[in-house]
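for the writeup, i need someone to sanity check this before i put it in the appendix. the sequnce is what the collaborator sent (i think, or maybe the updated version? ugh). structure was predicted straight from it, no edits. if anything looks off just tell me and ill rerun, i have time this weekend
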Amino acid sequence: MSEYIEKVLKKIKERDLNEPEFLQAVEEVLKTIKPVIEKHPEYESLAILERMTEPERIITFRVPWVDDNGKINVNRGYRIQFNGLIGPYKGGLRFDPSVNQSIMKFLGFEQIFKNALTGLPIGGAKGGSDFDPKHKSDMEIMRFCQSFMTELQRHIGPDVDVPAGDIGVGAREIGYLYGQYRRIKDRYDGGVLTGKGLEYGGSLARTEATGYGLIYFMREMLKANGNQSLEGKTVTISGSGNVAIYACEKAQMLGAKVVAMSDSNGCIYDENGIDLLTIKHIKEVERGRIKDYLKYHQNAKYIERTSDDSPIWEIKTDIALPCATQNEVTLNSAKKLVENGVIAIGEGANMPCEIAATEYFLEKGVLVAPAKAANAGGVATSAIEMSQNSMRYYLSFEQVDNMLEAIMVNIFKSTQEACKTYNLANNYVAGANIAAFTKLAKAMIAQGII
């Protein structure tokens, strides 16, 4: 590692000692961009790394709301406007008890690079709250969203900052958030939030975009390594939310056999192949648990989670798609996957693999589609939604899907090109980081010391 990178990492670790997720995200990026730093010694005098790893703005606020029993509750809200070099801040909102400043900063930092890879004019941000939407009534969620937006609306706008959904924030929450924004502003700014309902400015194919995009990237990666394809491959997918469901759908469309999916309690294994219609009914209609799959398919197996390692990674598979949350694939899980013959990992969640797990996969010759590249389909389609709102025009599902596919193909090409330029073989983790970093560094230099 270069002296400059070591110096910056040391300073960040001293300053942000209590932010482990953020430190992990920064370390993962800085370690991989060493060849670029060595090629451009002038980046040190311009403080490129120092400026890129410090958010432009951190907004923290109180969110008071009243539950159905009349009790007043108070949560903490965040918006990390990390970097607006190439466009308005763009990134999702996460409502989950685990949300804290470290997680918000890690997600915002990742978002800068992800958004740069899309080739679209969007900067990086992230936000959310430690509010837990599980087991809350619709009215409680509405009251929370209205209180959250009452503060957030001061800091966002179609040309300023455009949030979207993430864990715990789906179509219902986006609707309540947008309704409150419109009420306060007294105007229709459709482009201020993405992931909206189709009835009021949303985009076709947005729901499917992150999962579909993951599979498009995976397809290109397999094709570039031995002209392989998804057809006939066995796939396991962690999670059973939006990303996991539509990664499963597109993988099945391309001939793969998805045999397992999961939630935080455990996983289901169906050797005949997952019945996606059942999963959709359980998760999108009933809002139930993955274990409920057994009510409809009694020959399937349910494996309860009993440790930090999800049992889904013990199932023999060709391709593993972690689509749940950060650091879900530990080194121990990585070893089990390699032992069982996995050939490729596709990161559908943000930073789902621990650094040690990623390094182990690369050491053992497993192909890794990194989240910054493979997970970019959702935000890319959000940017397409923003364009439609600006044009006051709607594109068809096929048009949006074709644009998404083209963007994911181009992301893989730029990642692959960076690998070739810096002799990285098929280390797409480093390639994606370098491709994005190079673009951001050039924009930073062009805009002066800001």
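The first strand starts at residue 57 and ends at 66. The chain is about 50% helix and 15% strand.
thx in advance!!
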